[in-house]
Specification:
314 residues, alpha+beta, 4-stranded mixed sheet, two-stranded antiparallel sheet, 8 strands
Length: 314
Amino acid sequence: MEAAVKKKPPTKERRVVVTGMGVTTPIGHDPHEFYENLLQGVSGISEIEAFDCSQYPTRIAGEIKSFSTDGWIVPKLSKRMDKFMLYMLTAGKKALSDGGITEDMMNELDKRRCGVLIGSAMGGMKVFHDAIEALRISYRKMNPFCVPFATTNMGSAMLAMDLGWMGPNYSISTACATSNFCILNAANQIIRGEAILMLCGGSDAAIIPIGLGGFVGCRALSQRNTDPARASRPWDSVMSCKSFALVPLLSDEAIALQNFNPIFLLVVHACVEYLVKIASYFYLNPGQNRDGFVMGEGAGVLLLEELEHALQNQ
């Protein structure tokens, strides 16, 4: 007689909402400023100022010109960390502030169920590059933190340690799709009941000689240096799309959330499906004026919460 198959008990479907955003970008360090600049068509592409790139065929990038960690990161760490970590920690803490997570609320959180999942495609390239240059003189000149600070997961780790969060903590690195995978997996951590709060997103800062040189070497970058705002042309294409309508459906609970904070609401699974659908509707036809893409830097972090937890804290 065959043994009866044991069925797993039904689990409660947990819903995920976005209650905070934090950004560090060339066109704004605040979500509202960033969004308004996007609507106005403000370009963040300009000539590179961080180093002398006069000998490179590409001399433009989405470079952050002004950035300060004052009030967000202690000076001792600011001097040692790679910029991708500085951008990440700053954006992460801004997301908490935007979500209305005060110091008193932080003290009341079950930090074993609060996690960080913020990825990076390139990691701490500048720290590692500087270590190689120092090694030419002597290993004694190297930053003792150059190896851990170069890894892509160290930004998430440092942010979690700073906040005292002991929940899920790791990073995903999948090139340009890094942030998407981090957001999706962070949402799944909440859906599975492994966390109630998750900071997620991505950060990169690879506008350095080796980063620029690498992309120039594989002929991937635009050389439209005289017209930075119109330079990013990975495709010269005629974009056509089928007629379609994607209408976001908001539940009563979701609408109620808007009453206690300027909340940016997303059902994360629906968001990912939305992006996939859009991609499937567009067709790109290669033309004669393709010129390559433009490098950029910065960080974007979302604060995800379980719906019931968010409603309790309004």
